[in-house]
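Hi all, long-time lurker, first post. I run a small reading group and we've been trying to get comfortable going from sequence to structure in the token notation. Rather than ask abstract questions, I figured I'd post a concrete chain and ask someone more experienced to write out its structure so we can walk through it together at our next meeting. Sequence below, copied exactly:
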Amino acid sequence: MTTPRGEFAHDDLTITAVLHNGKRHTFTTCSSITYGNGLSSSTVGGTQPGPKAHGGRKAEPKCEMEISRGEEDELRGKQGDGWIYRTVDLQIVYSLPGRPDIIDRVETWLPLGDETSSQAGDPSMTKLEGNCLKVVKNGIDPFKKPRS
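-- Answer (accepted) --
Happy to help. Here is the structure in token form:
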């Protein structure tokens, strides 16, 4: 599906997990995914009322997704016991005919928990959320220091 501005939509993406044991899992029931590189920053004050400078920054990359309860079982079966302690690398590929693919990577995602919900008439869905070391969008490393 192409959006009115010709941008990629949810239907144009494929999400694949690379597990600790080398197994791969391509998600087929993902209803939503949110990922990115959040930053928190502090400011340095002085004797004047406003801040004087920016202090240090702290990266807070994260990822969350929602998949069906059945697919969660399939993923856990590939991960094995102790899945909560194991990291996963995610590859998100956006594809449209006639355009180059956009490939994003969620590196070393550590799921911090899961939450399953069910509503009448809808399949049970599980929300997985956690922290990662970084999100690389289309090959651009957000934390690589610029040369100058």
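A couple of things your group might point at:
The beta strands are 13-18, 24-26, 32-45, 51-68, 88-94, 102-117, 125-131, 134-137.
The CA atoms of residues 50 and 133 lie 33 Å apart.
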